[in-house]
Amino acid sequence: MRVLIAFMLLFGVLFSSELKIATYNVENLFDDKISGSEYADFKSNRWNSAKYNQKLQKIARVLKELDADIIALNEIENQNVIEKLADLSGYKYYKFATTKGAPVGLGLLSRYRISDSMVYIVPNVKTRPILMSRVEFDGYSVEFFVAHFPAAKNPLKSRISAADTMKKAVKNSKNGVILGDLNSNYGYKFLLNDLDEWTNLWEFVPASQRSSYKNGKSAIDHIILSSDLMGGNLRYKDGSFGVFKANFMDKSYSDHYPIYATLSTKSLFEDLPKVSINQIKSTKQRAKITGVIVYKDKNGYIICDESRRGIYIYEKNPSLSVGAKVEAVVNKIENYKGNIEVTSLSYISVDTEFKADESKYLMDKKDISIATSGDVIDDITLDISGGFAKISKDKFKIYSPNRKISDGKIAVKRAVVWNYKGQKELIIE
C-alpha cells in the first residue's frame, strides 16, 4: 500500500489562509473600580480612572500594531476589562476566566468565532485557571489553552501541579496551542518538557534571542503547538515565530513583550530546499530530504539516500518498515551523546511499496574512514578480537542487540556506524 501523508504537494495549493496567533502578559490591567481583590497599589489613590484608561489605550495600541488574529492575554482583572479591550482593539470574540478572589485572570481575543470553551482549575493551588477556547478557522477547529502558571517564587509543588493540570487538559487535543506566561524559562528545567509530541517554538530561536520578559533575559512566555500543527494541512509557518518589540513600548506598557507565530493552510514545503543527507548532517538546516529506511530499532529508523549517507530519526513507537521510501522535512537535528539525530520530522510522503536495490544507498566499506553516526556500511567482514575490530586505521567497538559477540571473522550484511562513550562503534544484526 502506498501512503501519501501530505497529498497537497501532488495536487498543489491554489489558495491559502493564515492565522496569526500571539500571547501577551499585559501586567496588571485593573479597572477603576475597587472590588477588594486588587493588589495594594490598585486600591489606593495611585490608581484612578485616568490611569486605567491610559493603560487600556496603550495595550490596545500594542494589539493593533501586533495585528494578531488570536491573542492570549495574562493579568486582566475581570470580564469588563477584556470587553473594553476587545472593543478598543477591534476583536469581535473574547473569553475570560479567573478564580474567586483572584486579583487577575486571563483571556483570549479572537477575530474568528469561538465555538466552545472550558475552564480547568488547578487543584489545591491558589493560582489562575487554564482557559480552553475552541476557535473555528477556515474549516479547522483550533484549541487554544491559555495559562498563567504560578511565579517561580512559589513552591515547586504548586508549579508542577499547574503543569500537570495543563498536561491533562491537552491530552486528547487536536490542533492544540498552549499560550501564556508559564513562569518557567525555556530550557532543561522547563515545566512542560515532558509533554510528548508538542513543539515549543522557542526551539527555532537562537539561545541569545530567547527573551520575552523585560526584567531579565527569560523566555517565560510560550507558544507550544501539538504535533498535527507541525505536520498537518494547517501547520506552523516556517520562520514566523518572533518577539514583538515596537519602539514605542516603554516600561509603562508592560514588563513583558508579546510573542507571536503564524499558522497556515498553504503548502510550506515548496519553499524549503531539498538537500542530501550528507549536506543536512553538516549544515543541520531545516530542509527536505528523500531516502530509504535501511535500519530500524525500538527508538527509530535510519534513512539513507543516494549520497550513501545515513541519519538516525528518533521516533517513539516507530511504525514504518525497512525498505520504505520517505520524503520528509527535517525540522530539528540534535547531538545526543555524540550522535547526530533528527528529533523532529514532518512526513510529506511514504511509499511502502518502493522496490530498489538498497545497496545503492549504503556506504562502501572503503569509505568507512569518513563515516559518522547514522551511516550504514554495506557487506563487510569483521575480524573481531576482544569485542573490537580494526578496519583500515580505525578501531571499532562491535555491538549487537541480538547475539553475543565472539572473537573471529564474521561477514555482516550491514553495520551501523555509531558513537558509544566517545568510542567508534559498529552495530550489527
From TrEMBL:
<keyword id="KW-0255">Endonuclease</keyword>
<protein>
    <submittedName>
        <fullName>Endonuclease/exonuclease/phosphatase family protein</fullName>
    </submittedName>
</protein>
<keyword id="KW-0540">Nuclease</keyword>
<dbReference type="Pfam" id="PF19580">
    <property type="entry name" value="Exo_endo_phos_3"/>
</dbReference>
<dbReference type="InterPro" id="IPR005135">
    <property type="entry name" value="Endo/exonuclease/phosphatase"/>
</dbReference>
<dbReference type="InterPro" id="IPR036691">
    <property type="entry name" value="Endo/exonu/phosph_ase_sf"/>
</dbReference>
<dbReference type="GO" id="GO:0004519">
    <property type="term" value="F:endonuclease activity"/>
</dbReference>
<feature type="domain" description="Endonuclease/exonuclease/phosphatase">
    <location>
        <begin position="21"/>
        <end position="251"/>
    </location>
</feature>
<dbReference type="InterPro" id="IPR051916">
    <property type="entry name" value="GPI-anchor_lipid_remodeler"/>
</dbReference>
<keyword id="KW-0378">Hydrolase</keyword>
